[in-house]
Structures
1.
Amino acid sequence: MYRFAEKHPVLFEMPVIIAGFLTAAVITVFGTSAGLNADLCACIGRYAAALFLYILYRRAFRGPKPQDHPAYAVPALFFALWNIFYNVCNGIPLADLNSFPEAVILAGAPAVFEEVIFRGIFLYNLKKKGHGDISAVLISAAVFAAVHLTNIVGNEALAVLIQAGYSFVIGMVFAAVYLKNGRISQVILAHFLTDLINHIFASSPASASTLHLIIFGILLASEAVYALWLAGRKE
C-alpha cells in the first residue's frame, strides 16, 4: 500500500477520500437510527476516519524536525479574518452562545479530517514521488478544490465555482505552510478558525457586493502569491 501510494499519490488519494467519507456516512446512518443528531454523527465519523488514517499512515507525520517559523502560518489566518469582516459588514448577528459548543464540533471535524488527508498524507506521498514544493502545493490544492466541486448538486454553478477557487487558494496556503513548518496542528487550527467563524454567525449573506468581491479577489490573489513564494523559499 505504501509503495503504491508513493508511486501514484493522486490515484491513492481518491480511495482515501472516498473511504473517509464512507466511514462518516456509515457512522451517521447508525447514529441517526439510534436517534442521534445527524450532523453530530457525521462529525464523529470524520474524527474517527481522521484518527484511523493518522494511525495507519503515521509515517507521513514523522518527517524531519518541524521548523520554528510560526510567522509563516499568520497569512493562513487571514481567511478567518475575512469571514469576520464579511459577516460584520453585512450586519449578520452572532448566533446564540448556547450553540457555540456545537459550532466548535462542526468546525473541528472537517479541519482535522481534511488536513490529515490533504496536507498530511497527500503531501507526503507527493514529495516521495519526487515533486518539488511548488508542484506539490499546486497538485494538492487542485485535488482539494476538485473535491469541493461535488457541491454542485443542489447549488448554483457559479457559487460552487467560486467556492472551488476559494478552496484552491486555501489549499495552496495550507500546503505551503505545512511543508515549511511541518506542523499539522498549525494548518488544522487555521482551517478550524476559518470554518468556526461561519458557524458562530447566525447566517451567511446570500450575495456579495461588488466592493466585497473586489476585496475578496485581492485577498485570494495575495494569498496565492504568498503560497507560491513560501513554497519556493529556500531555507
2.
Amino acid sequence: MDIRNATLVFALSMPFSVLAEQARSSQAQEVQAKPEEIVITGQRLQQLRTQMMDAEIKAYDFFNHFNDEKRFNISCSSSPSINSHISRRLCQPEFEIQAMADHAADYYENVSAYFDPANWDGNKNPPPRHLPAEGVIDLQQGDYHHKMKQVAEQHPEFLQAVIEYGKKRDQYEKATTTKGK
C-alpha cells in the first residue's frame, strides 16, 4: 500500500473513529445521568418520608400535651422487623403497650409454671391474670377515639397538625406509588 492509499484509508476511517468515540461518550453520559436521577429521586423520597414522620411526631406531641388521660398518651419506638435489619417504627397509645406487656407477663408465667417441677401435680396452666391483649385493646378503642375527637375539637393546633400530617403522608404515598409505575 502506497502512502496515498494509506492516507486515504486513514482519512476515511478517522470520521468513524470520531463517531465511535462520540457514541461511547454519549453512552457514558447516559449511564452517568441515570444514577444521578435515581439519587435525586431517592433523596426526594427520603426528604418526603422525613417530613411525614416529623409531622406525625408533631401531631402526637400536641395530642399528648392536651390529653389528660395518661393511658391515651402516644409514644413511638423503632425495632427491626423479624429476619431483617430494617427498623420498623410503631406508634401506640399507652393502653396498647400495657396490654401487650401484661399479655407477655401472663405468657411467661404460664410457660414457667408448666416447666416448674413443683407444679407437676397436674395444675400446669394457671389461669391468666389479664384479659387477652386484643380484648383489652378493643375495650378501650371507643374511649380512645372519643378522646382524640375531643382534643381535636378543643385544640385547633392539634387538628391542624393532624391535617398537616395527612398531607405529608399523601405526598409521600403518591411519590412512592408513582415511582413504582
3.
Amino acid sequence: MLSGTYCINQGYTLEPHLALQCHIEMTAEMIASGCEVGAAEIEAHLGSPAVQTPEHMQKQANLSQLHDVAERLYTQWISALVC
C-alpha cells in the first residue's frame, strides 16, 4: 500500500487491480488545467497544510521523474496481467 502524510490510502493493489489516489500520469498542461478548473476549491482550502498554491504545484512538478515512475509502475503492473 502507498500512503502519504495527508492521505493514508494513496494506492494499493488487489489481485490484478491497481488503484491510485495520486496522479502519476500528469503533464504540465493537465496541472495548469486542474489549477484553473479547481481555482475556487484550491482558494477555499489554502489554509490546510495539504493544499498547495497553483504556482507551487506548477513550479514543483518534476514531470520527468513522475513519468519515469509511471512507466516503471505501469510496465510492472501490465506484465503481471499477461498470462
